[in-house]
Amino acid sequence: MPELPEVQAVVDLLDERLAGKAITQGHLVAFSVLKTYTPPLDALLGLEVAGVTRHGKFIDVDAQGLHLVFHLARAGWVTWHDAVPTAVPRPGKTGLALRIGVEDGSGFSLTEAGTQRHLAVYVVEDPMAVPGIAALGPDPLADDFTVEDLAEILSEAGRAQLKGVLRDQKVLAGIGNAYSDEILHAARLSPFKPANSLDADGVAALHGHIRQVLGDALAGTRDVAITKLKDSKRSHMRVHGRAGEVCGVCGSTIAEVSFADSSLQYCPGCQTGGKPLADRRMSKLLK
Prior knowledge:
The protein is α+β, with helices and mostly antiparallel strands. The protein has helices at 4-18, 131-134, 147-157, 162-167, 177-187, 200-220, 229-235, 268-271; strands at residues 23-28, 49-55, 58-63, 66-71, 76-81, 96-102, 107-112, 120-124, 255-258, 263-266. It is built from eight helices and ten strands.
């Protein structure tokens, strides 16, 4: 799933290439992805793109006050076209969901891999009309996101596990499964550690690691082609997706905890005092 750094990279590319150009075509191929019915998609036609921004993992194309908002979910992605295909797209097995073209003939497509359909598209007059955006927590890379803000979040979370707190979009916007693993590894914290168990120094350290890991990942997306962003993300991970490999920090073997539809990776040596976390439901919360 694309997270804050990759989504921001897509936003930057779309903003650079779309701003100042009028939308001339919009083809909805997978009708299930469109979650709103008014205004209609064709209301965007003829409107000039003012800019493209991000709300957590949501991408917002502002066309003169009308917003095309989309969330890529787990398997969605953006494909840029220097020249949008001229043939009208038809439903099929390609995963194509939506295609947008602008006045110079360029544009982009939204696609979704796999069989599950979670890609979501909205056309709204106000981004806050999108329920997921209205419910978002603060952006962890925002200039005004302070140590005190994080301390309040962790206190309110009580004994909820840090892993779940970090990836809850209503708590912090933009962090998902992969970067929560990376942040906790950098901070040398168990994913199951209670949120409210960190002292003041621990909160400050975690705040620094959140911003460092996300900031480094964001910097790493610069000059990376949109087609290479996913591979670039994987290549820079230290623990996520690396179960069975050797930790580059302490030399321990990276371990994994599996759930019904996801998994987490961590380093026992760095994060849990050498103790394995066999299963979330059976493991004790480690301090």
